[in-house]
Amino acid sequence: MGRTSAVLVALLLLCLAPAHMSLAQSRTADLNSVLAAYKRAQGTWTTGRPETSLTHWTIAYGDLQGTETDIVDGTNSRTDSTLGDSSESYGTFDGRDWDMNSNGEVFTESGVHTRLAVDDRALHAAMGAVHGEQYVRLTGRVSKPFDAYVVEVDPPKGVFEQLYIDATTWLLDERFIRYPGHTTTYTYDDYRTTLGLTFPWHIHASIDDGRQEQDMRLQDVQLGSPVDPSTIAIPQSKSIVGFSTPRTTIPATIVDDRVIVPVQMDGHTVNLQLDSGASGIVIDRGIIEALHYAERGHFNEVTAGAYVESDAVVPLMSIGTLSMHGVHVESLPFASYAGDKPVAGLLGFDFIDSVVLHIDYADGTVEAIDPQTFVPPPNAVPIPISLDDQEPSIVARIGPAEHVRLIVDTGADRSLLFSGFSSNHPGALVDQGLGTEMEAAWPFLGDISGVGGEVSYRPVDLGPVTVASWTFPRWLFFLTQDPSKLEIEDYDGLLGQDFLRYYDLYLDYPHGRILLVPNARYNDRFGM
Description:
The protein is mainly beta.
């Protein structure tokens, strides 16, 4: 599921200003005349812009079918999508963006992703300017697959876009967006006019040239009808974990700083790695099939490599005295080892979000604490986190680079920097010596294992590095070499086990923070 209709709405809202120039008034097709004709083709509201709207869509994603309902009331909005047995929602309410995943857990966004908004502002400026806007330009006219004028949008800190505006109808035929690491192409047709505004009733999205396809067909539009406030408000978040006591020790083991949790499913024990860098719960497809859990949908995904993912529902998962019922999980090929322990998946956001998780790396113990009773240790340092992608991210400083956004990842053996960090902060990539020594001793790129494959890296020794109240003169990072894999848009890297092992770590998603307490390892190494 995605935000295809939200992208459509944002694009259409750009087009509601009146046009001041027709293409016929210009001897040649320049940017201003094309955009003016484009705006005019959208039409204008015959009775004034309505404050509310309700639209119903049918959707297809991969091989699953479903429905989507969009509600807009002024600046508030809500979208509810259902595919097969899985339902998700997102929206904006009183200025807060929120999401609800398929397990009913609600989290708010902090605005990590702003690239499309930057593009929209640049395009809006071009539509209202006499001479256009410097980051928007007309690059020419194509005849295939449409007879269309091509407008490129490429502002700093935005994304590269191409808008294909039909040379006959002046409506949008296609929108190509190149994000860091992937692309999406939207095509629009079946335009119809309602209350003077013309918009498409059919939208098709193709991700990475057909790796994944999404199709949406509008079934019904209601404009100006009253909206019940309860239908658009932020829903109550669901906790999928049942506590028998306010605080319980999880029967986990920490192997080479990897937290391995035995999970009971239908009388079988399955080892999952506790992974704050996982946006859900992942279980190996072989386990799902062996336990005869139904799989729904086949989605072509890419992380460290390409793989096919499906959705499944596990009736009951137990971790010690904790229980989780009817849990939506991701089924995909996954096999790993932690020491001599076979690992068949990842225990990510959906579990961690329902508890306060205390990982004591030095003592090798893990606790789950009821968020309603949790009291932080008096010596703990709280660090605010963002959960925009169901992974906790913090802001750090590396050398001269400020506001470096790192995902706190208990599943990463080493701290990583993504390739985009190089272009965003070139002055910070000054090796302090160890990275150069490692490359000289072993002049070949290393590989990091991840879901679906491996990613190449090179070591870089950078500093100083500041995280919360701690500053380290230098820290060894692995810089990834392939921007099309593993990397997550708008993040600079991962803070891995090599850093976290020096602390008692509290993952407190319900209160929007992590907490760190230096442990004996920290004192032994840093002498503080």
